Amino acid sequence: MSKQSYRRTLSFHNRQIDLDIIRQRRKSLAIHVFPGNKPVELRVPLKCSWLEIDAFLTARTEWTFKALEELASEPRELEIEYTQDSTHFYLGEIYPLSLSEGKGRVRIEDGKLLVRCLDPCDPLRVRTQLDRFYRKQSLPVFCRQLAVCTQTFPAQVKPSVLRVRKMRSRWGSCSHDGEMCLNTLLVRHDIKAINFVITHELCHLVHFYHSRAFYRLLDQAMPAWREAEKLLRPLALT
Asked: What is the pTM of this model?
């Protein structure tokens, strides 16, 4: 037999995932994570001992959950239309686009996102105007919610500076010197999702890596963070 598969449950910090251990013709052990609900795969040599497999899993359990979290938190790239009446989001609410010709401007009125640009038939121009709108709105929204989120932390836990920019692979980040950066497109999401990303980054100011201590702090600061995290997934990054 050239391939054998076994299902196991892997646990870390009160979280569980399915893991498929696949014996195949190979020389080394390797973990593979996938988007969606596909189980994690641990691929091992045919004659690898269970003692070696268990030791390998123990050493890489935390890494596996961190990799899954980062994969899940990456905004998914889906095709979004920038045409008349196509739907877009702002603070979790859905708005149809109302396009017109004129000097570039975006505002919300009568339940619609009114977008004016030189050529409303050009999706790239429409998208550019929306990106500018999201960037302009994001900083005051994020500053307000940062003030809310920091109330659950000691006074010294706060970013040295808050920056915003459009990012293609993450909703937020922080540096070793305390700088926090949030994705301008996060402003399209519900306030609960925004608070989750901010709280997540505040926890990184205390524990830079996704350690057990990091998750304990996240649980304390935002007990319902798992539900809030799920709100990020239906929206795409464009």
From this structure: 0.67
